[in-house]
């Protein structure tokens, strides 16, 4: 242990009873490599003081039994691979939407319907999702789709918000690790913009491992078809991204302008950059045929490296991370991470910088000094910004107009408040902040470490998602919410902006392939309980009405590939059935008016019970049947 560490540990022991230790210890050890080191985090509040602050909060946090929340929250499940739906302000978890993971309860990853989305040859059982975002029309949530990235396996998924199920997943070709993801806000979400984080050689076939010949790309997907519309080659790497309110520009941070392959190298430059993409010019270049293709993919690839008319590289300090558009549409704000500053980019100056009328740095209109480790910024719609300080474990509230005045030499204080959070915050998100409707009521802070905030549960700790009332002049911390790994980001949407179905309609495309197969077999999913033998393939069609399956016994031969289709004829809200075959790894959800199907090999002769595994009726236990497998 180094001297410094030893000292920190002694400090830790001394201050344990004061509740100071974690904050100081992390602060002291995490600053290596940070420029412009200021003091450590501010005053530490006692638990009692927090409780008092929560009581004083202006917004009502209490959602009583039977009452409904004001907002939906959509949380990324991080490397757990799912999306979670919470109610705000209660912070109650309402639903989980499996996406890149396998889910035993709903059968996601097991059913044919989910494999239609994941790919029947999909071999990835994991994902790493960070950035959930909801489609927009004219800069406002339209409640249609939610999109989310998979950094681990370079994919983008779409969730239909009417049924809250994933309906499309696209693997992005030619690149590795989709990280930052945002949507075009205006005039509507035509494109899903997403960054591939790491540079790779092209072709990446083992013939060349050099960094010099490596590059990465900015990607745009068509939000309806989920096909990749185009890709843009860039200098450096790509981290986070956001889009503007004109439909013309998107901006991405780059922390590895050095194109280093090791940590120290990525910190060599004092400035990296924000790369701004001119969407109109890129579309024009594609239209003009001014592109190439890479490898086997047919996606148009344009070259946006320096000197390209398609991009501008705005130098900003240092290993920037988040970039967030202010809801008034005026600014892209990039957080410095290794610089204690944020860079405020004036979007109305971008035309001039693309026309070479002004210098690159002329678009920077403020560079407020905020504290250590700024990562992400969010807004209240009243001119204030809220930036997470990872190293200081704080949220800093600051005023954008005052920061601009200060940058212009006026003697004004742009800092409004610093509030301790627990601990090491990554993203934060104010209610409706990324839309024109930013209402400045709630702020969620996704703290990466919870330390001692919850009952201990072994070495692996939950994260701590904290809720802060920002409706007044002062931020008030009102709730701690433990979360399993690892919500990088979340969004909040007014509840009237999401319209969900209570039961499926029979023509839902979610089970279109089951319907198509039934038609081929000459049966109707809703009416028939039939077994179709097709060589070694057996298709068992059955209905379900609580508490009974339409087929309670069927016979197959050992080695048959069996597909069971269950159509739930119940029309009563909340009567979901399940289907599980004992010892066959089969489990699925069949909600009212839904059809689900699953395919497995009946490889064991004998009697195999199947049963309903979603509690549906007083006689739910009795909702069973037998699969009889004859010896081959
Ligand atoms: Cu964790 Cu947006 Cu992937 Cu920042 S990201 S913290
Ligand atoms: Cu049907 Cu439980
Ligand atoms: Ca760097």
UniProtKB/TrEMBL annotation:
Pathway: Nitrogen metabolism; nitrate reduction (denitrification); dinitrogen from nitrate: step 4/4. Its EC number is 1.7.2.4. Residues 536-632 are annotated as: COX2-like. Residues 533-632 form the Cytochrome oxidase subunit II copper A binding domain. This is Nitrous-oxide reductase. It is found in: Periplasm. Nitrous-oxide reductase is part of a bacterial respiratory system which is activated under anaerobic conditions in the presence of nitrate or nitrous oxide. Cu cation Z3 binds at residues 131, 427. In the C-terminal section; belongs to the cytochrome c oxidase subunit 2 family. Cu cation A1 binds at residues 577, 612, 616, 623. Cu cation A2 binds at residues 612, 614, 616, 620. Cu cation Z1 binds at residues 321, 376. Predicted to be exported by the Tat system. The position of the signal peptide cleavage has not been experimentally proven. Binds 6 Cu cations per subunit. Each subunit contains 2 copper centers; Cu(A) (binuclear) and Cu(Z) (tetranuclear). Cu(Z) is thought to be the site of nitrous oxide reduction. It holds the Pfam family nos_propeller_2. Its main location: periplasm. The chain crosses the membrane at residues 25-45. It comes from the Bacteria. Its cofactor is Cu cation; Ca(2+). GO terms for biological process: denitrification pathway. Keywords: Calcium, Copper, Membrane, Metal-binding, Oxidoreductase, Periplasm, Signal, Transmembrane, Transmembrane helix.
């Amino acid at each position: 242990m180094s001297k410094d560490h030893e000292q920190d540990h002694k400090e830790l022991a001394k201050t344990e009873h004061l509740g100071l230790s974690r904050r100081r210890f992390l602060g002291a050890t995490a600053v290596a490599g940070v420029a412009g080191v200021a003091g450590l985090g501010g005053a530490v509040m006692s638990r009692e003081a927090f409780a008092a602050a929560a009581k004083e909060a202006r917004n009502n946090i209490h959602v009583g039994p039977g009452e409904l929340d004001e907002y939906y929250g959509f949380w990324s499940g991080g490397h757990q691979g799912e999306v979670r739906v919470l109610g705000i302000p209660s912070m109650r978890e309402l639903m989980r939407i499996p996406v890149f993971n396998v889910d035993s309860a709903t059968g996601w990853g097991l059913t044919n319907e989910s494999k239609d989305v994941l790919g029947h040859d999909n071999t990835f059982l994991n994902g790493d999702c960070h950035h959930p975002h909801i489609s927009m029309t004219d800069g406002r949530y339209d409640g249609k789709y939610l999109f989310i990235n998979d950094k681990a396996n370079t994919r983008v998924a779409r969730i239909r918000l009417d049924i809250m199920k994933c309906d499309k997943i696209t693997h992005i070709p030619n690149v590795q690790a989709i990280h930052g993801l945002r949507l075009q806000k205006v005039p509507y979400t035509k494109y899903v913009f997403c960054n591939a984080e790491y540079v790779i050689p092209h072709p990446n076939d083992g013939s060349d491992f050099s960094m010099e010949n490596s590059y990465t790309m900015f990607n745009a997907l068509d939000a309806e078809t989920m096909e990749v519309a185009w890709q843009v080659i860039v200098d450096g790497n790509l981290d986070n991204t956001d889009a503007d309110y004109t439909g013309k520009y998107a901006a991405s941070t780059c922390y590895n302008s050095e194109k280093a392959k090791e940590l120290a190298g990525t910190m060599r430059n004092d400035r990296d950059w924000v790369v701004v993409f001119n969407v109109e010019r890129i579309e024009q270049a594609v239209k003009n045929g001014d592109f190439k293709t890479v490898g086997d993919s047919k996606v148009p690839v344009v070259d946006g490296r320096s000197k390209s008319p398609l991009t501008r590289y705005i130098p900003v300090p240092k290993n920037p991370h988040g970039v967030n558009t202010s809801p008034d549409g005026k600014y892209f704000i990039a957080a410095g991470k290794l610089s204690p500053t944020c860079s405020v980019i004036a979007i109305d100056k971008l035309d001039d910088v693309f026309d070479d009328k002004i210098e690159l740095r002329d678009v920077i209109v403020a560079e407020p000094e905020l504290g250590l480790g700024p990562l992400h910024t969010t807004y209240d719609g009243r001119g204030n910004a809220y930036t997470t300080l990872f190293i200081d474990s704080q949220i800093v509230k600051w005023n954008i107009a005052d920061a601009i005045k200060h940058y212009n030499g006026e003697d004004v204080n742009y800092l409004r408040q610093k509030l301790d959070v627990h601990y090491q915050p990554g993203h934060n998100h104010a209610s409706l902040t990324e839309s024109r409707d930013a209402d400045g009521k709630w702020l969620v802070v996704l703290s990466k470490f919870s330390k001692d905030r919850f009952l201990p549960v072994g070495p692996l700790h939950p994260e701590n998602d904290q809720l802060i009332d920002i409706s007044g002049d002062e931020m008030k911390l009102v709730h701690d919410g433990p979360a399993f790994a690892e919500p990088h980001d979340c969004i909040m949407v007014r509840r009237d902006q999401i319209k969900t179905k209570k039961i499926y309609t029979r023509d839902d495309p979610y089970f279109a392939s089951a319907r198509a197969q039934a038609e081929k077999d000459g049966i109707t999913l809703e009416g028939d309980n039939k077994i179709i033998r097709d060589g070694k393939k057996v298709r068992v069609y059955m209905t379900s009405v609580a508490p009974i399956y339409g087929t309670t016994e069927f016979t197959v031969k050992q080695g048959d590939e069996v597909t069971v289709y269950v159509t739930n004829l119940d029309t009563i809200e909340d009567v979901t059935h399940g289907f599980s075959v004992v010892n066959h790894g089969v489990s699925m959800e069949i909600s009212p008016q839904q059809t689900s199907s699953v395919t497995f090999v009946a490889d064991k002769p004998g009697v195999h019970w199947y049963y309903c595994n979603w509690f549906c009726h007083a006689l739910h236990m009795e909702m069973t049947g037998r699969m009889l497998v004859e010896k081959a």
